[in-house]
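Handover notes (outgoing to incoming on-call)

Open items:
1. ABC transporter domain-containing protein: sequence verified, structure written out, both below. Nothing else pending on this one.
2. Nothing else urgent.
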Amino acid sequence: MDYISVPDVEKSGGDYAHLTNTTIQGFSWEGVSVTMEDRVTKLPKTILSDISGGLKAGELLAIMGPSGSGKTTLLDVLAHRGTTGKATVKKSLYVNGSQTSLGDFRRISSYVEQEDALTGSLTVKETLYFAAKLSLPSTVSKIERTQRIEALLAAFGLQSQANTLIGTPIRKGISGGQKRRVSVASQLITSPKILFLDEPTSGLDSAASFEVISFVRSIAKQHGILIIASIHQPSTSTFALFDKLLLLSSGRIAYNGTIADVQPYFDSLGYSMPLYMNPAEYVIDLVNIDFARDTERAHLQLEKIQSSWSKSPNATTIVHEIGGETAPRETTPTVVAEEYGSANKLLLPFTLIHRSFIKSYRDVVAYGIRVAMYMGLAIMMGTVWLRLDTDQKNIQSFINAIFFGGAFMSFMAVAYIPSFLEDRSLYVKERANGLYGPTAFMIANFIIGLPYLFIISLLFSSITYFLSNFRPTATAFFTWVMYLFLDLIAAESLVILISSLAPIFVVALAATAFANGLWMSVMGFMVEPKTLNVFYRYVFHYIDYQAYVFQGMMVNEFAERTYDCGKDCQCMYVSDLADQCKVDGKAVLAVYGYRQDRNGLWVGILLAIVLGYRLLGWLVLHLRRT
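ABC transporter domain-containing protein structure tokens:
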């Protein structure tokens, strides 16, 4: 089968691409079995049973089977990835006939997820650049890194799209097939010798699927890379691009051999393939019992196919080949772990900050929409509480404005959930590939948000503060900005914690809204702290960051301001200035029980709450890998 020709990497900077595999001659596995507890019956359930196989340098292996056959589980086991849920895994994996450690295996392999782990606001070239920065050791020079990127762009036919955005929901980018090629190319930046592809054609039409597998095949053949892909019912032309097929059904092998021998083998079992039928479609239908009308007959047929394979000479040959490869030798396999390094862990946060910075100013969903939303809120607030004068009848209006400004700015942090979930999704995939962990991710996430949150606080305050006629001094204004800034940092930290615990948009949104409703209820505005229910006061009030923001803003407004009692001189608050027909703002603070000398304490508590949220978020990310 002919495949799409692509530019020869060796003629496009191949001397620097380091794609060619000269160390890994073969990868094999023996007796792979996975059992898991059934969630309903609580009984052991077999996912995979005694799976053996292998491939050699330059070969493409397709793992196929109906839904639930164990394709993804097998791919994860072969790639040294953890399986979902509590599972018992038995496996023997060999590289060049010898078992390798997890660290060494990850240095010589890469895994391409089913869903593209790409940042839509980056260009194709930038995506490869950051893949290189996150994965290549510092010993690789900047010139060499650039040459690798250029070679991969040429090898995958992406040179004309190098400066095109990947694409976001708002801004159109490259096509689905090109995205998949970028995903594969970004994993090849480290020159892996074994490449795992999870459903590389998922969501693509037949033409795009053929295009992607053609490019992958071209790279494998030119450079001796071993490629294992789980794939669901490819077209005839795409199926023919693979060298080998491992067909699964109900966790057992139905066929394991070359693509060329598929039809003769099933013909020999009495299952002749009809003319002009897609062989991939035929063999999957043959072993699929989910939709069989005669269930008993379908089970008998599947049992016959599986037992025929296990007793076939081909199955015996595979076991013997694995045994021969793993027999003791005079020399050790040529797997030089020292050839492969990893990026400097101390520099990883800076790389992530750089990438996040590009995303943040290009992707309006990240902060642009939030800035516009906050500005609209500022104009609304400033015009509702417009130019309040210092008459005692406006004291409650000032208090209401302080509550609204702090509480609703905090509440609107829910707008950050979609952006964080996108970042988290990329983090999960890159962590699974061993690029970085939760520490680097949380540090970068925290730092990149600070300037934007400060800008939002400053812009919001510049509109609201003077429109509403809060205490008109520079010190008071910047104190207000400080508390609002800390308020937004704490609110965003809470969003990150909840979204890490429940990484589903609707759930995270509901949980964050509930938490903000709770904080607003116990912060001290709805019910004064000294009269608040004992349970809510001691369990929630003292850990409510909104309460400290409210206290700080109240003291900032009322501690050094006086208000007129009106023409009749009937003062609403008792203070030392009553004989002057004025209300001392300190009397308002006394009603709430707020002291004036605790700004430093409140700021310290707010910083501690932020740190607590971030550490809990880090812990959740550390414990959760999906």
